[in-house]
Task: structure prediction
Amino acid sequence: MNTAEFLETLDLEGRLLAAAAAEAGPDAKVPACPEWQVRDLLRHTGAVHRWASGFVAEGITEPRPIGDGPDLDGAELTDWYRESHRLLVETLSAAPADTACWTVHRAPSPSPSAFWARRQAHETTVHRYDAEEARGGMPSPIAVEFAVDGIDELLRGFHARSRSRLRTEVPRVLRLRTTDPGTEAVWTVRLSTEAPVTSRDATGEADAELCAPADLLYLALWNRAPLPRISGDDTLAELWREKGGIG
Result:
């Protein structure tokens, strides 16, 4: 996917998030985050949007904390979220390709602004799903290509970092495979006492394999849906449930 496609997805997903949150109401519970109500979801996601915008707009090259959302509620909070989302989309759309700024991880990316377009598209999609779950009813679909990209970012971006907790005392190999007709994608995750090493191939024997359509695997790996049935060593599924979350 290219940056323009990520920006298009980010724009759509933020609008869907705001609409679902407005329908659900600020008191609705967020099933994937039991400690949250919709108001917490809006404050968090809007604050993340503004945090990401700041790195790009101001060329900040060092990490800084995410601020708190405002002490607003109801329609005012939803409007604040919409403004946060608009600011992010406009900032990323206007950013020069050679913008230099800090990024969360070092997954392959053409530029820092392209990195943030991708990262925020996935951040917003996951939280849009949260808002729609809180609202109830059928969630909006996730495109196969986008879901595959999100799985890749999680495995080869977030879990490539030294802070990943996805580790095993004895080396293990976990394979993940999407099953959408004509668009199969596969990853091999090598686990050890160090940070996982993931490749986009099916090289070598695996101790366990997770297979599912891309959208379901995406949601499961982001802890928004149950993990699909695992073939082989099912302790690796338990390992993911315990250690695969991103803090």
In short: Residues 112-135 form the longest helix (24 residues). Strands lie at 172-178, 186-191, 197-199, 208-212, 230-232. DSSP finds seven helices and five strands in the chain. The radius of gyration is 18 Å.
